[in-house]
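Please check these two lines:
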Amino acid sequence: MKMGVVGLPNVGKSTLFNAITEAGAESANYPFCTIEPNVGIVDVPDHRLDVLAEMYNSKNIIPASIEFMDIAGLVAGASHGEGLGNKFLSHIREVDAIVHVVRCFENENVIHVNGKVDPIRDIEIINLELALADLEQVTKKYEKDSKLLKTGDKSLIENVSLLEKLKEQLENGKAVRLLSLNENEKEIIKNFSLLTAKPVIYVANISEESIYKGGNELSDKVCAYAKSENAGIITLCAQIEQELTSLPKEERSEFKKELGIKESGLEKLVKASYDLLGLMSYLTAGEKEVRAWTIKKGTKAPQAAGKIHTDFEKGFIKAEIVSYNDLVEAGSFLKAREKGKVRIEGKEYVMQDGDIVLFRFNV
């Protein structure tokens, strides 16, 4: 899973990126300090792996991972190359989802690229630039396919009809993800790599003072905006997250307690990312390793097995499954089996989050 972190300059993007990835990206109080995207791969926090490792006396723990890409601050006119916008927009096309950081704090020492803090205006500037970049791409595709359709290529009828719909949406400055599309249309637009078709998580970046209240008037506006378009939303203080990351791991829990923070920014972001993309994890456990495997919700057992190796899917016979809670309650796999908690599932079984699995296959 690859997430692109975007926003206007000086909203706290690189500070947040540093905090969640501990990658030490350059962060400064001036626009475009990030030219090439910084990339950090982050382990997905999952306490279940530690419990299983102790139970199985495992040598290795391999969590799921997410790749974060810190993309330079976009400005008005980015779709026409303003502020190296074309270069930055091309980086966003590579990601699965967008993490849109929005400034919801006042600080006279941190300049705002537009002179005044206004989160909804800031969101709309970015969203409009993404829509304009998509419009240019869709218009070119529409003109090309329309010409071919006139020559008698009937296979393009559906494509042209869909492109007309996309063009109208984008001309109104609205995101493609807000369109009501059928399953076939959704499959077609996957090939277009449209920026506004990507799911979005808005991150309302608040001040330390607002942490104790759980937000402020500015972050409340961002929350309402996100809900209006069924986007993901989390509220955090990027500066606090960076301070948290700088502490030794054994001191972080106490620091969070002092601030009344239940989850770190990374934990919030991972949870929001999984919810937004419809993902979950199943687990494998043994003396060699315990490991989390990320799959789409609704995935059946053979396809889940294919995440480990294609041979597992091709030669799938059955899966021995016990839920994480049942295994922990029993105390061991053997005791779980004795209690009848280990199930034999076939090809039609739909995997559940926290399933601990042993796949049986024959190649």
Observations:
- The first helix runs from residue 13 to 21.
- The first strand starts at residue 2 and ends at 6.
- The chain has 15 helices and twelve strands.
